[in-house]
Amino acid sequence: xxxxxxxxxxxxxxxxxxxxxxxxxxxxxxxxxxxxxxxxxxxxxxxxxxxxxxxxxxxxxxxxxxxxxxxxxxxxxxxxxxxxxxxxxxxxxxxxxxxxxxxxxxxxxxxxxxxxxxxxxxxxxxxxxxxxxxxxxxxxxxxxxxxxxxxxxxxxxxxxxxxxxxxxxxxxxxx
Length: 175
What we know:
This protein is α/β, with parallel strands linked by helices. It contains five helices and six strands. The radius of gyration is 16 Å and the shape is globular.
């Protein structure tokens, strides 16, 4: 035991998961559909996102499903530095999503460029290309942090007001 009092217990995780499921149901009246966009990552964050679908975390029981088409997505989950070659594709993916829509930047690279910041081939994060609602820091962030980030993102959404009419607020960084 490390003696830390801020350690996350399984009960805390289960409580957060249940809150997320209730919030998704209340906000959407159905499942939350996520489109994952790899904008030039090392795949570390992608592995952690894949861990969300394992029996241990099993986010599908909470009403979260990953979809192949942005036309079916409510939330865009972006990993990577946003390479210059993917900027236009990322914008088109975002514009293809129906209103209301959310963007979550996952990992240090998507937030600030991470160890690749300042390189010629990419941006220093995705915020110059897409309007980010929530940042989930880490290199890579743990699945529990991803679940918490999704909870924060869904909690910020007003299902009755289009994204274009949302007030510009400072994106939230998940701890």
